[in-house]
Structures are given as structure tokens and as C-alpha cells.
Amino acid sequence: MASTARAHTNIALIKYWGKRDADLILPYTDSLSLTLDEFYTTTTVDFDSQLKHDHLMIDGQVISPDKSAKVAHFMDLVRQMSGQKAFAQIKSVNHVPMSAGLASSASAFAALAAAASRAAGLNLTPTELSRLARRGSGSATRSVFGGLVQWHRGIDDESSYAEPIMEKVDFGLEMIAIMINRQQKKVSSRGGMQASVDTSPYFKIWPEVVEQDLKAIKIAIQERNISKIGEIAEANAMRMHALTLSAQPPFTYFEASTIKAINLINQLRQTGLNCYYTMDAGPNVKVIYDQKDRPQILAALGQVFGQDNLVVAQPGPGIEYLETIECED
């Protein structure tokens, strides 16, 4: 009754920002992401009839029940689906900074959904697993799959799920994560989304903007046009962050070094390098570029931010089930 699964983070090229149903986690818009190989979560779930409640351990640290209520709620969903009555021992190891705008919740809940459902005796299809992962974290619905993935907003629980549009990304698309700040952000993604929905005067046109950007980037992907993909993703990210700046009170995930990175990427582009930036709800900047330009881009970024703060990521895989029932050290 134990199972171990690994899921990788994803970075949205076309952003999901705002829920129209907070309980089911149904978004206002579709979104499109790239799963990354370098950032992932490995989780083991073991149901035990002797336990009085779910026990959660993250990176070797025991998490108290009052701080793991979200996970306990998610496990209740798995128990409802499977008929499993026992509580579980959950051990999770993160290879991604938590709550820093690097999609740690995406990999965390995708891995939990996969490990928990299998340990509970469920044999979910990828689509069913995507729906389940969504109930833990919206972006987790995309981390079930590798490569380039679209999340269909849907109209209800059944119709809101992700599917890959290109699992094997073979045309040189890569990302460099500039690790500006690994600490937990001050404004959560959930809180930031709701503030934008409730108070930004521009949110009402956000779904229309996303629809246009999504159509354009899917054409660019079909054409394997990295420059166009980067251009659209960069514009979409700035439009998302404009919602936070126009909220009341206004807030931002940017730090001084975020602006420095943006300016440097713009400068590199003016020299002829096709590199673009995107950011989620956090200060860390992700650079979109063609693999052949990696040495020059790394050299330029390293001079300013240090090579130790740069992580090269390629398109990553979807859910992986591991034979061992123990998380790695």
C-alpha cells in the first residue's frame, strides 16, 4: 500500500492567474506551460491503519497537522475516490525552492496525486490524474505531463484538466532560471490572484488577452519558432504582473535584481541574442532561449548574477513512478 512518484515543476508561458471557483480550482482562462527537468518533487505515500491522522514530512522535517491541513484535505479527496479508510505516512523531498515563484506546488501536488492515488489502489488515466492534481494546486494539473502542456479551463470539475500539446520538445527550447531569491515570497500566489481578481480594473480583459496570446503561441510552437514563443511569453508575463501593480493596494513580486535581469536580457537581445524572460509569482526570472545560444547567455548572466545562481533547464518528463518506496535522502 505504498507508492513513490516524481513530478517536475512547470513554468507557464501563458499564465494562469485567477480562479473562478476556489474550491474546485477552476481558472478563468486556459494556460500553457513547459515542464522542466531540473526542478522536481519525489513523494512516497504509505497508508497505515494504525495512524490517527496523516503524517507529513518534507525534506526530513515533520510538518505539524495545523500546517498541513491543505495536504490532509487533498488526502481526503483520494480517500473518497478510492474508499480507502486509513491515514497515510507522506514523505516528500523537494528539489525546488518552495513558494519562490518556481512552481514548487505544481510538482508537489502532482507527485502527491500520483503516489497517493496509486497507494490507495486507484489506477487513474493521465486525464483523471490531472483533474485530481488540480484540486491540490492549479498548476499541478500541468505537471502530470512532460514537455509543452495546455490546461483547459473547463466549466466544471470534469472538463478542467491538462493535456500535452508536444511531449517531446526537440527544437532547442530551453530555460535558464536566475535564482534571485530562494526565500518564501511575502504574497502567496493564491492571495495575489484573488487580490488581482477583486481589485484590478484590468482583470476583466485578462481572459481576452490570454485567449489571444494562447492562439499565437500555439502557432509559434507548431512552427518551432523559439523567438516568437519567447516574445509572446514575455508579453504575457508582463501583462500578468500588470494586474498585481494595478490591484488595490498595489503589490509586486519583483525585486531590484528582477529588474536588473530584465534589463540585461533586453540588452542581450539588442546584441542579436534571441533570449526572452518570464516570471511567475516570485522574483526569480526564467530566460527563454535557443539551446545553441546557451554559452553566450550563460556567460553574460554569470558575470552579473554568478554562475552558482543560474540553473539550466531543458524540457522535462511527466509523472514517473519509482520502484523504491522510500524518498531519496
Can you walk through the features of this model?
By secondary structure, this protein is an alpha+beta fold. It has 2 domains: 2-169, Ribosomal Protein S5, domain 2 (2-Layer Sandwich), CATH 3.30.230; 173-313, Alpha-Beta Plaits, CATH 3.30.70. 36% of the residues lie in helices and 26% in strands. The chain has 9 helices and 14 strands. The strands form 3 sheets. Strands 1, 4, 5, 6, 7, 8, 9 and 14 form an 8-stranded mixed beta sheet that branches. Strands 11-12-10-13 form a 4-stranded antiparallel beta sheet. It has a two-stranded antiparallel ribbon with strand order 2-3. A hairpin with a 4-residue loop joins strand 2 (19-21) and strand 3 (26-27). Helix 2 crosses helix 3 (126-134) and helix 6 runs antiparallel to helix 7. The chain starts with a strand and ends in a 7-residue tail after the last strand.
